[in-house]
Amino acid sequence: MTEKVKVRIDGQVIAATPGQTILEVARANDKYIPALCYMEGLSAVGACRLCMVEVSGVARLLPACTTPVQEGLAVSTNSEQLHSYRKIALELLLVERNHVCAVCVSSGHCELQALAQEHGVTHVRYPYNYPKLSVDTTHPRFVLDHNRCILCSRCVRTCAEIEGAHVWDISGRGIQSRLVSELKRPWGEATSCTSCGKCVQACPTGAMAEKGWGVEEMTKRPGVVGNLTSMRGDR
Amino acid sequence: MDKVKIGTCWLDGCSGCHMSLLDLDEGIVAVLEKADIVFGPLVDAQEWPEGVDVALIEGAVSSQDDLKLAQTARARTKVVVALGDCAVTGNVPSMRNGIPTRRLLERVYVEGSTETPGVPTDGVPALLERAVPLQEVIKVDLHVPGCPPKPDAILLVVSELLEGRMPDLGSKLRFG
Q1: What CATH number is associated with residue A140?
Q2: Domain count across chain A
Q3: Are residues A15 and A66 in the same domain?
Q4: In this complex, how many residue pairs, one in chain A and one in chain B, have their CB atoms less than 8 Å apart?
């Protein structure tokens, strides 16, 4: 049996396995840390900055999803400071592209929308960016709407790590970053795409959806990725 | 005691927020016992009066007229509420913002018209380059998102304001 390490999360002492991240330990012990880019069963990238936590003795905030636990680690997952930084992160995601909930297939089932509401984001304090973005409808069954994409890369990792096809990548830098299929081919022409649709299920917003649904109609099963990983075990 | 004065207006929106306001059902009776609606699509006043206590503003700021009305309402009102997603985020009206205004008008009124092509200029206010949320042009005291905000959210907001308290939407906060 592996040696356990003792960590303290919000005051509670928890025995954790070395190699686990703060987020994994917290979730396994019913402690809630919000996250958008983290998905059980995928590698962690620390992109969305929502899971930032306070670690005692460390002056800066650390992302819980990529920080491994170690003996004696003391973490605070919920403070006024964290709440205000998480609100800022959500607001910046909302202003970057065009998140028009009223006409979105995922409204009511969207992780970004739910987190904004949960964190009391009644409005954003920054000017909206209003970029002109395209919608890729070339795939026979699925749609990619860049207006709703938050670049969490859950689709990229799902396709590369679970399906093994690696159709998706992020191209460009900073505000110009875009999700691209097969070196910027339209999705419908991507020959490596198996049309399995797991990227769609992994997408936290309405950026990826099945065709044929109206506003509020697209529900997803994000648990499918974690289930596949745990069923495969070490194989 | 004098009644509280409420003004409402409808900028670039679909009137859905006003429909939701009417949808308070019997709740509106309780509101009207304590308040008068002194301006808006529901009453006859021609100009936003002085000394209004609460402004409920629906819609994004999209034209010169929207801008003027928003500024007048702000100057003459104590508490300004941005009512609904258009006033809070720009929402559907802001979906035109990636397209230059001139290009947009020509596409609709010239290329899109078979009968009498031409961009209308008489009797219509000039469009702003972008449709923006209320807070980008005036100070907003309270944001009530929703498309439209549910009647119970509006009732909560109005009732709290009538009691002189600043409402907390809590679980009634909802976009879309």
Answers
A1: 3.30.70.20
A2: 2
A3: yes
A4: 68
Residues of A in contact with B83 (CB under 8 A): none
> What digits encode the pLDDT tens for the residues A172-204?
999 999 999 999 999 999 999 999 999 999 999
CB within 8 Å of chain A, chain B residues 61-100: 82, 85, 88-92, 94-95, 97-99
Domain residues for A203?
100-225
Tell me which fold the domain B4-93+130-170 belongs to. Answer: Rossmann fold (3.40.50)
Domain boundaries, chain B: 4-93+130-170
Three-class HEC string of chain B = CCCEEEEEEECECCCHHHHHHHCCCCHHHHHHHHEEEEECCCCCCCCCCCCEEEEEEECEEEEHHHHHHHHHHHHHEEEEEEECHHHHHCCHHHHHCCCCHHHHHHHHHHHCCCCCCCCCCCCCCCEEEEEECHHHCCCCCEEECCCCCCHHHHHHHHHHHHCCCCCCCHHHCCCC
pTM value? 0.95
Provide the shortest C-alpha distance from residue A201 to chain B (in Å): 21
Q: Are residues A151 and A50 part of one domain?
A: no
